[in-house]
UniProtKB/TrEMBL annotation:
The chain crosses the membrane at residues 56-80, 86-104, 154-173, 180-201, 213-231, 243-264, 276-296, 308-327, 333-351. This is Solute carrier family 35 member F2. Belongs to the SLC35F solute transporter family. The gene is SLC35F2. It is a multi-pass membrane protein. It comes from Pantherophis guttatus (Corn snake).
Length: 411
């Protein structure tokens, strides 16, 4: 019995050949299940093809340029506040709006192609007043919030503008997001949380604030106003023109910020002890802000307002890196980790484009102003008119027949 089993297993000292079905299954398994190294290489190739594109690289670079410009405004404002005790956010914004007015509003006034300044004011003056008011007050409320609450609260609550921006884009711009976009936003917010944790560990909380509740409300209000301004900017830039947006914001912003400046900051301006260093800081702030306003519509036109706001989350990190040398901030490895996490989320968001929902069309004819009842009445009137026409024609025929009969009788 044992010899029979051995004979069935061995044949001429070698293992017996497997059945044909088993051989085919083994070959199929070998083809379907490639080595792990091959799977990893294929995955790496796909990721490289999806992420290492010119669009993502360009979006990444443009977003970081905006972050550096915002960093410039933050550093100059910090210098004015710490070194010279100057807190005049409205004056700084007023200078920026004046530059926008001089460059873009005057260009818009003399533009020959498309609507000029007067035509735009006649058609859409109230819309741009609301836009200018939102933009001016967004800048003012965020800066004002630092007087009442902590840096940590401002950094955290300022992220409230991103979901507001996505919601406004959904309803106004008809943007439609995928799951990867929501995951990317969550990753970016996780990076912001890491940055805030690094601030707490480094002791950069700047006290508890004079009135935390007021400061938090100001941050939420400013973030919402920024979202409104950014969505409006995206709509105008993509559907109208960049020149129209900057020209009208420069005009309305100059008027509103000038009035508010005269009301709330005239005493602070009178107390400034001017010298060339202070003037240079004001000029540097104005140039950075002017560059930000001039460059952001270009980036939004290429990408979207949401991706821009995700990209500029790194602005606080750049400010912190400069603060290590300028203001003596303490370094933490968590700053680098938060930067990497934010960039990963930003790349994830840009890797998959959003789509725009189409406006639903209807096959029903548009109703006119007459309404159904009036339309029936109109049909009835037309019927009566046609009846009268037939009666008149019949009377004419009868009269012609009578004339013919009379002539025949006379003959």
């Amino acid at each position: 019995m044992e010899s029979v089993r051995s004979a069935s297993v061995l044949e001429n000292g070698h293992p017996a050949a497997p059945p044909a079905a088993a051989a085919a299954a083994a070959a199929a398994a070998a083809e379907v299940s490639p080595p792990c190294s091959s799977c990893a290489s294929n995955l790496w190739i796909r990721l490289r093809e999806k992420l290492c594109t010119w669009h993502i690289v360009k979006t990444l670079l443009l977003g970081q340029i905006l972050s550096l410009l915002i960093c410039g405004t933050a550093v100059t404002s910090q210098f004015l506040a710490d070194k010279y005790s100057i807190n005049t956010p409205m004056l700084q914004s007023f200078i920026n709006y004046c530059l926008l007015f001089l460059v873009y509003t005057t260009t818009l006034a003399f533009r020959k192609d498309g609507d000029g300044l007067l035509q735009i004011l006649k058609k859409k003056w109230w819309k741009y007043i609301l836009l200018g008011l939102a933009d001016v007050e967004a800048n003012y409320t965020i800066v004002k919030a630092y007087q009442y609450t902590t840096i940590t609260s401002v950094q955290l609550l300022d992220c409230f503008g991103i979901p507001v921006l996505m919601a406004l884009s959904w309803f106004i711009l008809r943007a439609r997001y995928k799951l990867i976009h929501f995951i990317a936003v969550a990753v970016c917010l996780l990076g912001v949380g890491t940055m805030v944790g690094a601030d707490i560990l480094a002791g950069r909380q700047d006290g508890e604030g004079s009135d935390v509740m007021v400061g938090d409300v100001l941050v939420l209000l400013g973030a919402s106003l920024y979202a409104i301004s950014n969505v409006s900017e995206e709509y105008i830039v993509k559907n109208l023109s960049r020149m129209e947006f900057l020209g009208m914001v420069g005009l309305i912003g100059t008027v509103i910020s000038g009035l508010q400046l005269a009301i709330v900051e005239h005493r602070d301006i009178a107390n400034i002890q001017w010298n060339w260093k202070i003037a240079l800081l004001f000029v540097a702030f104005a140039l950075c802000m002017f560059g930000l306003y001039s460059f952001m519509p270009i980036v939004i036109r290429v990408t979207s307002a949401t991706s821009v706001n995700l990209g500029i989350l790194t602005a606080d990190l750049y400010s912190l890196f400069f603060g290590l040398f300028l203001f003596g901030y303490k370094f933490s490895v968590l700053y680098l980790l938060s930067f990497v996490v934010i960039m990963i989320g930003f790349i994830m968001y840009c890797s998959t484009p959003t789509r725009t929902a189409e406006v639903p069309s209807t096959t029903l004819p548009m109703a006119d102003s007459t309404g159904f009842d009036n339309l029936a009445l109109k049909i009835e009137e037309n019927h009566l008119e046609s009846t009268d026409t037939l009666t008149t024609q019949s009377n004419k025929d009868d009269s012609q027949a009578e004339d013919t009969t009379t002539k025949l009788t006379a003959l």
